[in-house]
Every structure is written in C-alpha cells, then in structure tokens.
Amino acid sequence: MKMNKILSKLSSSKLASKFLDMSLRSKFLLSFIVVILLGALLTLTFGTRLEHQTIISLAQQKVRHDLSSAWMVYNEKLNRIKDIIQLNTSRESIINAVKLNERDILLQYLGRIREMFELDFLSVTDQRGHVLIRTSHPESWGDDLSHDSMVKKALEGKIIEGTQIISREDLIKESRHLAEKAFINIIPTPKTDPRKSDSEEKGMVIKSAAPIRDDGGRIIGAIYGGILLNRNNDIVDRVKEIVFKDEKYKGREIGTATIFQGDVRISTNVETEDGTRAVGTLVSQEVNQAVLQQGNSWIHRAFVVNDWYISAYEPIKDIENNIIGILYVGMLEKPYIDLRNKVMLTFTGIAFLCVVLLLAMMSFTTSTIIMHPLKKMLLATQKIAQGDLSHKVEIDLQDEVGLLAQSFNQMTENLKKANNKLLLWGRTLEKRVEERTKELQNTQDSLIQSEKLASLGKMAAGVAHEINNPLTSILINTHLMLEKVDDKHAFFESLDLIAEETSRCSQIVKGLLEFSRQNPPQKSYVDVNDILSQTVELVQNQISFHNIKIVKIFSTEIPLIKLDKDKVKQVFLNMMMNASDAMPKGGTLTIKTNLTKEKNYVEILFTDTGIGIPKENIHKLFDPFFTTKSSGTGLGLAVSYGIIKQHQGNINIESEPGKGSVFMINFPIDDKNAQRRSV
What's the CA gap between 420 and 282, in Å, rounded? Predict the structure, then answer.
C-alpha cells in the first residue's frame, strides 16, 4: 500500500511523467547512474574516515612504543648517575676525608670523578646536611642542605635517585655556570596557555644521593651529584638516534624528542622555522591541561611549535610524586596524511573507472536477456562480500556480460591472492617486529654490561697506578734490609714475610692493569677437554674440594677451536671455584662437554649440587663488585663474562635454590678453519 501511494505521487508529478515516458534502456541507465553515484559517495565518505582512523591508530601505537624506548634511555642515564654515586660512598679515602673534614682531599678525588663521568655537580655534606665541598664550586660551602629532599633521604640511610627542580639560588651555589645554562627566555608559541613570566630561572636535574658510613655503619655524611638537563641534548638526541634513526621526510626530521620543565622546552631536537632548537617554546594548551594539570599520559595529534605531530607525552615526577615536567616523543603527521590522501586518490580513481565501465556496459544491456546474468553476478557479489572469495560466476555468454563475468572471476581470484599475500605479509611483519625488539633488547643489555666493564677497567687502572709505586718502594727497601741481616736475626722472618706479601700485592696490581687494558686474546687451536682436565688437576687437591666429587663427561666429537688457552683456563677455574663455594658441605660437580644441536658451538656445562642462586640475583651475577660472599670481590664472573665475549661466546645460568646451579658456556666453531681432534 505504501509503495502504491509513492508511485501515485510520482505519477502525478512532471518529473515522474518524464521518467515513465523514457525507454527501458534510459530508465535502467538513469537508475544505475543514481545508485552508482550514491554508493560511490557513501563508500568514499566512510572509506576515507575508516582509512584515516586506521593509519592514525597505527601511528599512535608506534609512538606509544617510542615513548617507552625514550623512558629506557632516560632511566639508563639516571641509573648510571646512581651507580657512580653509590660506588664512591664506600671509598675509604672519602670516608676518612669526611671524618677528618679534609676538604682538599675530597676536592682532589671527587673533582677527578666528576670530570671523568661528566657530571655537572658532585658534592658532599656532613651528617647534619652542611656542605663540606662542592667540586664544581669549591668556594661555596658550609650552607645547610638538610631541607633538600634527596639529601634528607640520604642522611636517613637511603640511596635515592630521581628528577628534581633546583632554584636559581641553589644552582649558583653549585656553579654560576649552571645557573646561566639553566636560564631560558620564553619564546611566544602558538596554541599555548598564557604565561606570567617571560623567562625560566630554575633548573631541572637528574640526580642521585647516598649516605656515607664509617666502619661502624654510622652515617657521617652524604654525597650527591647529577646532570643539569637544561640545554643538555644528550638524552633527546640519543632517543632520536635509537627510535627514529634520523629518518627524514621531504628534508624534515620525522621524529623528535623533548624534555619539558613544567611547560617549557629545556632540551629538544624540535626545530623552529630558522632551523635552531626550539628551547624556550611552550607545550600546547591541550597537552598542558591533560599532562601537567591532570597527570595523564597523552597520545594524540598535537601542534608542536610550528607543525602537527603524532605525539606521546607522559609526566615526569620528582621523588615526592609531584609533576615537574614532561617527556615527549613525536612523529611528523604529514607523511601519514600524505599516505592517506594518496590511498584515497587511488581508490577514487579506481572507483571512477569502475563506474564508467559499468555505465558503458549498461547502455547496451536493456533487454531481459541480461537480467538473469546480472542476478548471478549480484549473488556472487553478496557471496564475496560475506568473505567467500572462492565463489565463481557461471555465465557461458560470449558477449559483454560474459566478458564481465570472466573479469569478475579474475578479479575475485586476484583479490584472493592479494588477501593471502596480505595475511602472509602481516605474519612476516609481526615476526620481524618481534625479532627486532629482541635484538634491540639484547643490544641494550650488551651495551649496559660493556659500559659496566669499561668503568671497572678505568677504576682498576686508577687503583693499580696509585698503589704500584708505594709497593715498589716497600719491596726495594725490604730487600735492602734483608741484605743487612742474617737468617738468625730477630727481624729476618718478619722482613721476609713483608717482601713475600709485597711481591704478591705487586702481582695483584699487575693483574688489575692487565684487566684494565682488555688485551685481545692470543688465540690458537686448542682442545677444550684438555684445558678442562688441566684445570681440574689444579683444584682437585685443594682443601675446598676434599668433600667434592668431580665427574667429567667429555665428548670426543668436539673439534679443536681457536681460543686463548690461558684466558679460557681462567674462566674454567673461576667456574670450579664458584661451584666449590656453593657446596661448603660437599657435593658433586659435573663437568660436561658436547656440541650444540646445530653443531656450530662447543658447549661446556658446570653443574653443582650446591645451595643455588635466588632468582632475583641471577641477572646481577655479571655486574662488577656484586657478590654474596663475605670475602669475595665480585670481579670473578665480571672478568669471565668479558673473556667469553672476547671469544664471541655466550654464558647462561639456570639455578634453583636448594638444588644447585648450571653454568652453560658456548664457544663458536670456525667452520672454515676448525680442526678435528686426533683420536
């Protein structure tokens, strides 16, 4: 009834009258034009919106991961400062100097440390928080810093690190140069909140503080140090290098990173229109509201200085959980907009060509003979729309309709192939992303370990240099005194003991110097089984091995490989001594050699039945100076790790408290030059 009413109204109008008087071909063609145009308009409208949302969503996911990488770089810098501060709190020379208020000694020693590790400030206070020495400004001392949140916690016995805002007055006390560096003139920036002042005088620092204790464990002072972030571009440039790899689009940097102090850019690689770094510009109004005032992360498009970016912002907080700044990474939006426009232009062109083709076909198909094939094609399109790309149009005609059916079938086949390729590419891309992520993590772990070993090497060289000359003087004078007394003299045994122990100290110093130089291995083809057997002979008669059974399971299939025999023997000896320490009441040490499944590595396993290693300590074992032994130095595994890496090898640990540990060492086999053992 409703349809009849509509037709009745149409027939009463002139437009309906003209339409009804048209030929069937014209009616069909006109109706088809209207349908096609409406469908194209709707498809373009929703397609553009969907495609834009998809591309921008992918960009936001990427920038979210980029922000995580930026935090890793930021925290790595902060942890490095913490390690430097913590390492120096246990120095006996510093402890004694603080006890005796020897400011010159503190300045001399800590001044070298500050310059060596490129700290902007490194200072010491007494137990009341009064400054004993500022290495960056020695004339400024004696003031009370007990109100400083980090110094206060250090004097309470805590090791603390974090980000902090420092007033201009306190910066001047540390160094007038730092106060000048922190001062930033505010540059007017579009789309930002109005600001009361036209400059920023305070400074943002990454800082660490730790207590200094005497031999009795009493806190006698604190040491603190850090780096000023204002105009310091190390972190933001490192983020750009790692995350964006200096990629450019039409001559412009795609990726940028920034550290904000409040709403002011103090460290950035965002550039102004004249190509200078945009230090002193402000964060946009909407980001200010979301991040600084509400404390939320903000991942969206944002206007950055002079252009739009896909951006990620996250608040930087001090140790008291106050929001003091923002960490930002962003990608230029223009490449994604250009990609969207290109895709939509292509899609529009294809749609237009399809419309023209269909209209040309319909101008010659006005009779009922074409209706049946069209129904078949309509059914086929419905099947394909539901995802059935294997459906075929069965039309035996040899005219235009038949050709259209063949083209349709070919298009469906191409779509099916393209869909399969897209699925395959998606899986491949996901796998590559996982592999790349794992590579980046391994690279970062390797860099961190290398940096620790390098710092250890520098320290070892310094220690050896400082004590070598006094030891030599002691040894020479002891021998001169021995020449003047006979073996029955009352002091002969004491002098002989001094000479012997001094010689031993000289050997220790020599070992420290060799470690600090990181001499390259002197490789030759050796038998790993023979080196292990020799090492076992060295230790099995020692007292610590009397209650330990050593089981050797050596494979005879292992070829001779290129190793530095002495260095590798040092590693094996360290593994065995660690195993004996883990079995104070006795047990079994099993040493096994074999080839890996791929036969490209020689694998050596040291399995003990000792006390095991807590899970939280396993990842710290190769850190310099980390030890759980009361008399240990914490250098054995760190040195062993360095030797293994010099041979392009790997070391892994499996352990369960109360059941023992397994240390697995792999050395690569050189397929071109490896020699088979003589049997």
Answer: 48
CA gap 265, 231 in Å, rounded? 9
Place of tokens 């002072």: 221
Percent composition of the chain: helix, strand, coil (DSSP 3-state, to 5): 50, 20, 30
The answer to whether position 476 is within a domain reads yes
Task: Give the tens place of pLDDT for each residue, 585-641.
Answer: 889 999 999 998 888 899 999 999 988 888 887 777 777 666 666 555 566 677 788
Tokens found for residue 442: 């391994």
Assigned token pair, 441: 């993590």
Whole domain around residue 466: which residue ranges? 381-519
Which ranges constitute the DSSP H helices of 518-614? Answer: 528-539, 565-582
* 581 plus 508 within the same structural domain: no
Q: 């505010």: which residue's tokens?
A: 186
Q: Answer with the one of 470, 503, 519 that is the final residue of a domain.
A: 519
Is position 465 within any domain? yes
Token match 């007055």: residue? 169
- Indicate which CATH number applies to the domain containing 269: 3.30.450.20
Spatial distance between the Cα atoms of 633 and 643, rounded to a whole number of angstroms: 18
The residue among 519, 547, 573 that closes a domain is 519
Q: Any idea what DSSP says for residue 631?
A: T
* Residue among 566, 567, 584, 572 nearest 539 (CA): 572
Rounded-to-integer distance, Cα 648 and Cα 531, Å? 18
CA distance 606 to 654: 11
* Overall domain count for the chain: 3
Query: Would you state the structure tokens that stand for residue 167, as one six-digit string?
Result: 């007033």
Q: What is the mean pLDDT of the chain?
A: 81
Q: Based on the fold, state whether residues 335 and 391 are members of the same structural domain.
A: no
CATH number, domain with residue 561: 3.30.565.10
Instruction: Dihedral sign for Cα 449, 451, 452, 456, please.
Output: positive
E runs forming strands in 12-145: 121-126, 131-134
Which residue's structure tokens are 């109360």?
658
Token pair belonging to 322: 């106050």
Q: How many CB atoms lie within 10 A of CB 7?
A: 12
Per-residue pLDDT band for 538 (boundaries 50, 70, 90) equals confident
Q: Choose among 565, 563, 587: nearest CA to 576.
A: 587
Residues 497 and 646 in one domain: no
Per DSSP, helices labelled H in 484-524 are 492-517
Q: How far apart are the first and last CA of the chain?
A: 102
Phi, psi values for residue 57, rounded to 5°: -65, -40
In a 3-state reduction of DSSP, which class is residue 421? Answer: helix
Query: Checking DSSP bridges between strand 587-595 and strand 548-553, what pairing results, if any?
Result: parallel
d(CA 679, CA 675) in angstroms, rounded, equals 12
- Give strand pairing partners of 210: 223
d(CA 87, CA 114): 13
Q: Are 171 and 187 found together in one domain?
A: yes
